[in-house]
Amino acid sequence: MPNTGFADAAQLRAEMPLFTGPNWDFGSLRRVNDAIERIAFDELGLDIYPVQIEVITSEQMLDAYSSVGLPLMYKHWSFGKRFAYHETLYRKGLQGLAYEIVINSNPVICYIMEENSMTMQTLVIAHAAFGHNHFFKNNYLFRQWTDADGILDYLSFARDYVAKCEERHGHEAVERVLDAAHALKEHGVNRYAHRSRPNLAEEQRRMDERRAHEEATYNDLWRTVPQLGGDADDPAENAKQHEHLRQQLGLPEENLLYFIEKRAPRLEDWQRELIRIVRNVSQYFYPQKQLQLMNEGCATFVHYAIMNRLHDKGLITEGSMLEFLHSHSSVVFQPGFDDPRFSGFNPYALGFSMMSDIRRICEKPTPEDRDFFPEIAGCGDPFGVLRHAWANYRDESFVLQYLSPKVIRQFKIFQISDDSSKPSLRVEAIHDELGYRRVRSALSKQYDLSRREPDIQVMDVDLTGDRCLILAHYVHEGVLLEEKTCRSVLRYAAFLWGYGVKLLEIEAATDKVLKTYEAAVEPT
Amino acid sequence: MNIVDRRPNPKGKSLSNRQRFLARARVEVKSAVQEALRKRKVADVEHGEKVAIPTRGISEPLFHHNRRTGRTDHVIPGNKEYVRGDEIPRPTGGEGQGGREGSPDGSGDDAFEFTLSKEEFLDMFFEDLELPDLVKKSLKDTTAVDLQRAGYTVTGNPSNLSIPRTMRLSMARRISLKRPKLADIEAMRERLEEARARGDDEEEIARLTRELEHNERRSKIIPYIDPIDVRYRRFDRVPRPNTEAVMFCLMDVSGSMTEAMKDLAKRFFMLLHVFLTRRYRHVDVVFIRHTSTAEEVDEETFFYSRETGGTVVSTALEKMLEIARARYPIDRWNIYGAQASDGDNYGADSSRCVSLLGGDVLPLCQYFAYVEVGDGMGGSLTGLSRDSDLWRAYSEVAPAHEHFAMRRVGDPAQIFTVFHELFAKGGVRA
Fold first, then answer.
1. Average pLDDT over chain A, rounded to whole?
2. Which of A:396-425 have CB within 8 Å of B?
């Protein structure tokens, strides 16, 4: 057995390794990229944007960190704060730097650090330039929400625009608007695609049609039908008018920044444009927040598959393989909840395990898998199934669909319920026969962004009175807002709106108002 | 695939963000710097400092769920012992609950620690301090002048000829006066040759000849460069403020000065030195120590060698005058003096000190500080004991001279306060 094994291996490794030793150069980067490309296209069937690899230093990597991973960004103190924070961690040795940063643009820009060894560069190219890249290009959320072709141009416009505003209106004025907009940035995204507004000609045509229809079907008899009194004091009529007004304003509106940008009575044009910039950047990141698990899982799965294939083909040495495995296993390490290192699920670990398990289910299913995944168990096309999943799911639906009992057992996932009215927590489900489905749907909910973030909407505006903006937080399961941050965010909102802002915490199930916050405009 | 090497790109892309951040956190950073100063040694004053600032002024609030209200489910990994239906006592520290994601901006942290660079640190430290009489008042006496560019002029010497400006004006004039171009004249001449070679009729040839002559004349009348085009670079002579300073450190090293007192004096001198280096391009330091005689020594000897002997302060002042006159002419140098002593002096010498100081030294100096160091016990400094000889003597001089200050220091913690007092903007002068 060992003999034949070695013979096979020797035959497989007929090719020369692409590189030896830790040092990298541009030639070997190119060779590695070409080798990976063959595997990625022919065996995994990936479909990617063109890639631009940029070699940077660690300091530039810190720079990139501070501007939330984007290559260009407007200037704001919060980015300086982020830089100082990461720099301190890095200098103290508490935190290593990421090996790469990849930007969802066309072409995909992939930063790699100069101090990485050649093995790490190979891993990074497989991970970012192929794994993330395929995901960026194919996932439906990115396709729907992210304009990969235009993002860099837009960012450069944003940077210049902010700089120009600072020149014209002063640092402070710009900073105030940006601060306030940043406070609302998580509520500055469209969660659903808007219906496109009909243009004027279209509207005219529809009105003509309607009138023509009325004329054609005119019947004098309708005139004699007594009508309900139309006097202004009628509360029902008032309510109707109010409703009409709300409709005209597009209320309720969940995109707070959009509403403020379009409707705030006292903003100047450049302030509106600044809000729009913050909103657009926030919208760019909106899909990423819903796809963290899948994105990292996809990239990790792809690099693992590619590195193993490179090794099988004898294109990388045993030493490189060991180096890779060392780094891979620390990337997919998942500490337990009672571990001091625990900070939630590691998206690399869970994503990688789920995707590897899909592969196993497709290739070597157990009866349990056939039970849970009848459509894919034993189908023999793991990459096809994975490509489908990468393209058509987001974290929440991916977990709901594909979290297998084996992964639940592997991670020993359990669900506890935390009811603030009770003194203790209760374990609801664990990794057993009764618990798999409960754990799965609960974890899926945990990944649902609309549950994670407070559900806040613009409810009403008192346009005829004091112009107060009324927001509503719909409370689910009795979870209220954190009071201190809520008050400071509302102050920012009031600054942008120009008049008072009120926030009602409304129990979603009963429409009962639980709590009211108010913020007035602070004199400048 | 495309590989770009970005490593040579300019560094410090986020520098302006950092400055904005520091400006934003100014109040917090400032108080943290003061706090840090209280703890650190003076010898380190030139290094950067790690400061921890509370996140208050720099928080970025967002709407958050309050985790202590309502009912939430947590799904977490790593179950070792629990089965369904188990009750777990609520953890008190909020540890590990619910897998809160590590906040990318550190907003979860109470304090936020980062390192200030040396520059930033000193900026903060010296922010509200200023040097009295930073620039020599008698600028017109100084001979040093700088040349400063000041536009263009129509007269000047040839070495200052501004060719770009001259050519620009020349070109504008040539275009506006429609001076024929050399190439056009060449083309006309060629056409005339061709016409002659072809044997065209006389009239055509005559017309071409006329045209050529006309243009040639024009190009002669309108010169390529006219004297009115010529411009010279103009320089203004501006008197140069002195950017060089010399700092005289005078210290009593007689037997009565203990190590602790010398340490105090050293701290004061060092602070002054750092402060001066930030204000002047070049700072010389002269160390003069004295017992009953004064001598100029190097830094090492100044602070660390031991001497015994009596105390005659005036020798040090004389030495200072002598060196200043020999090496630091007053029109080129800003002269600062700092004297540290325990206040002892040879009885008859004090009056001589007063006359030297008031008559010769102070007119020379931009600023002169006298620091009387105590033995660190504090008792003798509280004014319970009698004033020292020197203190009493100098007190006579002080009222007449604005740029003379005297202070007492008892222990290292007071150094910063005293220093701040001495150099505070519009501060107190004793």
1. 85
2. 411-420, 423-425
Within 8 A by CB and 6+ apart from B196, the residues are B205
* B87-89 and A424-429 strand pairing: antiparallel
CA angle A57, A60, A61 (to 5 degrees): 85
Higher pLDDT, residue A222 or B376: A222
Last residue of a domain, one of A421, A450, A479: A450
In the predicted model, is pLDDT for residue A346 greater than 60? yes
> What is the DSSP track for A342-405?
--S--HHHHHHHHHHHHHHHHHS--HHHHHH-TTTTT-S-HHHHHHHHHHH--HHHHHHHH--H
128-187 of A, contacting B, C-beta below 8 A: 129, 171, 175, 179, 182-183, 185-187
Q: Which of residues 464-493 of A touch B (CB under 8 A)?
A: 473, 475-486, 488-489, 492
Instruction: Say if B93 is an interface residue toward chain A (CB within 8 Å).
Output: no
Residue B114 domain flag: yes
pLDDT at A214 over 50: yes
- A454, A480 Cβ separation under 8 angstroms: no
Q: Which residue of A has its CA nearest to B4?
A: A54
What average pLDDT does this structure show over B329-333? 76
Name chain A contacts of B67, Cβ cutoff 8 Å: 479
First to last CA, chain B: 73
Chain A partners of B85 at a C-beta cutoff of 8 Å? 426-427
Give the range of the structural domain holding residue A432, as residue numbers without chain letter.
332-450
User: CB count, 10 Å around CB of A7?
Assistant: 10
The complex's ipTM?
0.78
Q: Provide the pLDDT for residue B168.
A: 94
One domain for residues A59 and A109: yes
Report yes or no on A22 lying in a domain.
yes
Q: How far is A306 from chain B (nearest CA, A)?
A: 18
The helix or strand, by DSSP H or E, that contains position A89, with its residue range, turns out to be helix A77-92
Place of tokens 């037997």: B255
Mark yes or no for CB contact A453/B19 under 8 Å.
no
Residue B29, classed as helix, strand or coil, is: helix
Is A105 part of a structural domain of the chain?
yes
- CATH code of residue B405: 3.40.50.410
From the list A53, A62, A442, the residue facing B73 with the nearest CB is: A442
Instruction: Look at residue A271 in the predicted model and tell me its pLDDT.
Output: 92
Domain-ending residue, one of B200, B234, B268: B234
Residue B99 token pair:
């897998």
Q: Is there a single domain that holds both residue A307 and residue A354?
A: no
Question: How many domains does chain B fold into?
Answer: 3
* Domain extent for B268: 244-423
**Is residue A492 in some structural domain?**
no
Q: Is B183 on the interface with A (CB under 8 A)?
A: no
Average pLDDT over residues B103-115: 49
Q: Which of A196, A190, A180, A181 has the alpha carbon at shortest distance from A254?
A: A190
- The reply to whether A318 and A405 lie within a common domain is no
